[in-house]
């Protein structure tokens, strides 16, 4: 059954590499969903806000990962 | 004509390049099985994996049509964004030098070493070779099926170009594998992941928006603007990550996908 476990782990890994990164993406989508139902922002603004938040997550996550890599390299050095 | 360039062409290309990356990863391991355990177990294992995959696709594919379109768009859009941004982030970090590049030759050598080990030697039925080929075909194949469904279910008219793109990639990889008999280590994998991650993330954002009732400016053309926006953001992320690393005395590598 280890191969089946391997497949399931790989499937989850398709979407989740960095748990915090994935959680932030889900939080943005959830916030967009809640906003569309309860806040009713202008229809085009919601799309732009979601896009801006996702790009912010990408840039922020890359910077954090680079910082962690740098710290790890210093520690190993 | 606009629909062709904003939807069909990106769908076909995304499906082709994303599937190409997955099939190349599968081919590397199947070739390692063939080199160490023989072609028989490699082919039977891969064929069994593909058959199981076909059954799974039929089972799940028929259920999708029963769900409301908005729910599918939001759910699938979210999965595509998770998948696409994950690839884009990895490509950004590889471009910046924060993690090591994916190396098919190293993976091939590792698999050959593992399968050629004394404890994995051949028996009457070559279970190790069969299981390895089966598993990799299933895993990479499921990823391809997901990519095709993700690109096609938001708008059913796009399912055909998505399937065509994946099939073209499969045929190309099988042909190259049969001709070369070695892993395709020269594929610009990071560049492909960058491009596909970009397109998938743009598609995913678009579908989520459609499902939530967003009125995208310029309709379908918004897809191109989204892709351009993500490209700019990814470029900024590479620059920012490089700036973080610049003062570092060493760079630590990290494994592939």
Structure in words:
The complex is a heterodimer of chains A (77) and B (257). Chain A has 77 residues and is mostly helical. Chain A has one domain (18-76). Helix content of chain A is 90%, strand content 0%. In chain A, helix 2 (19-39) packs antiparallel against helix 3 (43-76). Chain A is flat. In chain A, 27% of the residues are buried. With 257 residues, chain B is mainly alpha-helical. Chain B has one domain (2-244). In chain B, 77% of the residues lie in helices and 0% in strands. Chain B is built from eight helices and no strands. The radius of gyration of chain B is 20 Å and the shape is globular. The two termini of chain B are 37 Å apart. Chains A and B meet through helix 1, helix 2 and helix 3 of A and helix 3, helix 5, helix 7 and helix 8 of B.
End-to-end CA span of chain A: 41 Å
Low-confidence stretches of chain B: 250-257
Q: Write down the domain tally of chain A.
A: 1
> What's the shape of chain B?
globular
Structural class of chain B: mainly alpha
Percent range for helical residues of chain B?
Answer: over 70%
Number of domains of chain B: 1
Instruction: Quote the average pLDDT of chain A.
Output: 86
Mean pLDDT of chain B: 80
Strand portion of chain A: under 5%
Radius of gyration of chain B, Cα only, in angstroms?
A: 20 Å
Number of strands of chain B: 0
Biggest interface found: A-B, 43 and 57 residues
The termini of chain B sit apart by: 37 Å
| β-strand number of chain A | 0
